[in-house]
Design a protein that fits this description.
This protein is of the alpha/beta class. It is 30% helix and 25% strand. It is built from 15 helices and 26 strands. The strands form 5 sheets. A 9-stranded mixed β-sheet has the order 3-2-11-10-12-13-14-15-16, with helices on both faces. A 7-stranded mixed β-sheet has the order 7-6-4-5-8-9-19, sandwiched between helices. The longest helix is centred in the first third of the chain and has 18 residues. The termini are far apart.
Length: 542
């Protein structure tokens, strides 16, 4: 079992550890290698919504199907063109991901719960040629939305049903005529927002995503033939990267669930003898709660990982008690491909509850002063920054935003506050940004505020995140009306839901008569948060 790095730092800087080699090939090369090394090993298993096992692919099948689709993509697009995938979890999503990798096409991943305005912005900003999508997701009529959006701005974007992707096959499985894809080439654009409220497309490379996933699963302890249960949505780095590519680099079996269902998680772990599972904290809470009297056997589990939100010490203990494994905490962000640091399997409980581990190999980690960008002393809070192979290429077509996020000497500014101890363990204390993390989803107040203010009855608004035991944080909206009329909480919710996805809809609406303001007239959001937590506001009674 791998052990923590033995260091005793003099300042908050952790140099790059090169205890394993960096993979210096692209994602498609890794898939081809796996098909030759262990062609008959199971690679991908589809789980249906009711929990039954459906289709399976071995590594040779996975490569052949992906290669066939890649040849079609190469006949339609040039290397570096963008195609979007807008769908819930299904094996075709993964086939498209690998086909894009083989053909040098850039895959733009889109949240299936997005509404028309959100989808339109991403399609325009990324300049996509085609969108591969499913007909619907839950109650979201995705095909109708996409058709309407593309028609509204006279786009020539082609709509293709993702379920039909294997029908595009040419039958010719030779790799000739495919472009040469390099590890430094861009592979995916994953959208993440900033304080402006407009999403920015993080351009991630083959080298960044492939190695990051590999190092993550190395630290988990994954071996050839191990079974990994993926309950995260594929549009996330954690799913299309850490899970999908991590299984690929280790020759593991990737069990793909269509969506998270706590009861089905227990069933699959028990019946299929799953070795590893990863998810956000709320997934573990809900699964443990649903399995209290089930009698399921979780003894096959070797490890679990969690991140995307604060992990409570009580949850770490509960996972150990109910699932029999230590919960390895991970920390990162999309722009870092995504992991920056991670706990070790043999870390003591005290470390697990207070830190997010040590950095992964081949990257530098530092705490930089908010005043002068100098490296902080041990234990001093500053901005968490990292540098290495994993840092994004930049924000697509956003040079100004890129220069703000990545310094001239290559440091990625995470926007998170934290400190490092002398043993190189990182602790996260807050955010320089106003980002809210709800159940592992990054939510940006400015975007919600902009939409709420489109209602002519509302004059001012402030959105904040407040702690929640289940989701990590929830969205709370403080607002002032213009005086002519007052909307109910239900009316406000209905108004927001016309343009924003469910996870961005505020949980509570609070009417404000007087804002706490700074000397320059800016709203003190931290005061609103403190007063809310003290119970000083009436929730939703507008």
């Amino acid at each position: 079992m791998a052990s923590p790095y033995k260091v005793k730092l003099q300042r908050s800087y952790f140099p790059s550890v090169k205890d394993v080699d960096l993979l210096r090939h692209a994602v498609g090369d890794q898939l081809r290698y796996a098909s030759l090394k262990y062609p008959n090993n199971i690679a991908l298993v589809e789980i249906k919504e009711e929990g039954s096992i459906s289709r399976k692919w071995n590594y040779q099948d996975l490569y052949s199907a992906s290669l066939s689709i890649a040849k079609i993509l190469s006949s339609k697009y040039y290397k570096g063109d963008r195609i979007a995938v807008w769908s819930s979890n299904n094996p075709e999503w993964i086939l498209l991901e690998f086909a894009a990798a083989l053909s040098g096409i850039i895959l733009v991943t889109v949240n299936p719960s997005y509404q028309a305005s959100e989808l339109e912005y991403i399609l325009k900003q990324s300049q996509c040629k085609t969108i591969f999508l499913c007909k619907s997701f839950r109650t979201n009529p995705m095909w109708d939305i996409a058709y309407s959006v593309c028609k509204s701005f006279n786009s020539k974007i082609e709509l293709i049903n993702l379920k039909d992707i294997q029908n595009l096959s040419t039958g010719d499985l030779e790799q000739e005529n495919l472009p040469k894809v390099l590890p430094k080439d861009p592979f995916q654009i994953q959208y993440t927002s900033g304080t402006t409220g407009l999403p920015k497309g993080a351009l991630l490379t083959h080298k960044g995503l492939l190695n990051n996933a590999r190092f993550c699963q190395d630290r988990v302890g994954m071996k050839l033939g191990d079974k990994f249960l993926n309950t995260m949505p594929l549009f996330h780095c954690a799913s299309s990267g850490m899970a999908t590519l991590g299984c690929l680099t280790h020759g593991a079996i990737h069990y793909l669930m269509p969506n998270f269902d706590p009861k089905l998680v227990g069933k699959i772990i028990d019946e299929e003898k799953i070795d590893y599972w990863g998810g956000v904290p709320t997934m573990f809470v809900e699964t443990i709660n649903s399995e209290k009297n089930s009698g399921r056997n979780f003894s096959s589990l070797k490890g679990c990982t969690s991140g995307g939100a604060n992990v409570a010490p009580a949850l770490i203990k509960e996972v150990r008690l109910k699932l029999g494994v230590d919960l390895q905490i991970v920390y990162g962000q999309t722009e870092a491909s995504p992991l920056i640091s991670m706990a070790w399997r043999n870390d003591p409980a005290d470390s697990l509850s207070k830190t997010v581990g040590q950095p992964l190999p081949h990257m530098e980690l530092a705490i930089l002063s908010l005043d002068n960008d100098e490296i902080c002393d041990i234990g001093t809070i500053g901005e968490i920054c990292c540098r290495g192979y994993n840092v994004m290429f930049g924000y697509f077509n956003e040079p100004s935003a890129t220069s703000q996020a990545i310094t001239e000497n290559g440091w990625l500014r995470t926007g998170d506050l934290g400190f490092m101890n002398e043993y190189g363990y990182l602790s996260v204390t807050g955010r320089t940004k106003e980002m809210i993390i709800r159940g592992g989803e990054n939510i940006y107040p400015k975007e919600i505020e902009n939409h709420v203010l489109k209602n002519s009855l509302i004059s001012e608004v402030a959105v904040v995140g407040v702690p929640d035991k289940i989701l990590g944080e929830i969205v709370v909206c403080f607002l002032k009306f213009d005086g002519s009329s007052i909307l109910t909480a239900a009316q406000l919710k209905n108004f927001v839901r016309k343009t924003l996805s469910p996870q961005k809809t505020p949980k509570h609406w609070i009417k404000i008569s007087d804002w706490p303001l700074t000397g320059s007239g800016k709203i003190k959001k931290f005061v609103l948060k403190e007063k809310y937590m003290q119970g000083d506001f009436e929730k939703e009674k507008l």
